[in-house]
Amino acid sequence: xxxxxxxxxxxxxxxxxxxxxxxxxxxxxxxxxxxxxxxxxxxxxxxxxxxxxxxxxxxxxxxxxxxxxxxxxxxxxxxxxxxxxxxxxxxxxxxxxxxxxxxxxxxxxxxxxxxxxxxxxxxxxxxxxxxxxxxxxxxxxxxxxxxxxxxxxxxxxxxxxxxxxxxxxxxxxxxxxxxxxxxxxxxxxxxxxxxxxxxxxxxxxxxxxxxxxxxxxxxxxxxxxxxxxxxxxxxxxxxxxxxxxxxxxxxxxxxxxxxxxxxxxxxxxxxxxxxxxxxxxxxxxxxxxxxxxxxxxxxxxxxxxxxxxxxxxxxxxxxxx
Length: 321
Ligand SMILES: O=C(CO)COP(=O)(O)O
Prior knowledge:
globular; TIM Barrel; 8 strands; 13% strand; binds 1,3-dihydroxyacetonephosphate; 2 domains; alpha/beta; 48% helix
């Protein structure tokens, strides 16, 4: 028999309206992103259900596709290649790098960012070819003050530098930066209007102990605890054992970690962040291995050290061509 209690009827109707709105929002996300990748049989099955079930079925299928096989075609994530110059270069060498960047040609479908030593930031910002963005390699979690040797997000903004690399393993290992400090820096830089390349990665010891996922999930979670909006974040997965060693992760090893990261982000942050956030691979990337790595569905670009100082960087930028 139908419920006649007015309070219950109103409460139930309100619940249905809110629930339908929720699924309608999901529906528009799915229509845009997932519909093209589902099978005709499933599309048929979805049509025979109501909006809620329709959306739920599709969303599940979409997540399954994305996190088992990798998001087909990268789901519109723009390939992004960063060059981390680290503490290298003189003005003459900086000019040589700028020359090969100007000569290119650089694939217009790839976002290119060079991570420059602080003293050359302004010079590179003024002399880099159009389309090449500039990143600092560090910045502190305060606007200004008594922090000798540090640079602030405000200073970077002041000279129109739009990006900063944070949490690099060399900052973690040599300068003792903790997960929490890095997360605070990421949050502060984002709040100041910078875009961030946030680096994570396990050491050889951690990999050999089977702790790769535990470590990278912990590093991501520390950041997730401090930020809400991931729009301006690129994650760089850089296994420490592959950095500067010539020992690149195989495309399969890198893809495995990238996929696991996306799955973790889907579960702990949100499916839409998992789908949209770009994850770079870093660690002995060269002109010779970039194509195979770049062909993996969850590898959305590279963070390049040594090879970013050489003309082969152009080849790496063009890995997806
Ligand atoms: O640390 C890196 C980029 O941030 C990787 O360095 P290499 O490419 O020299 O291994």
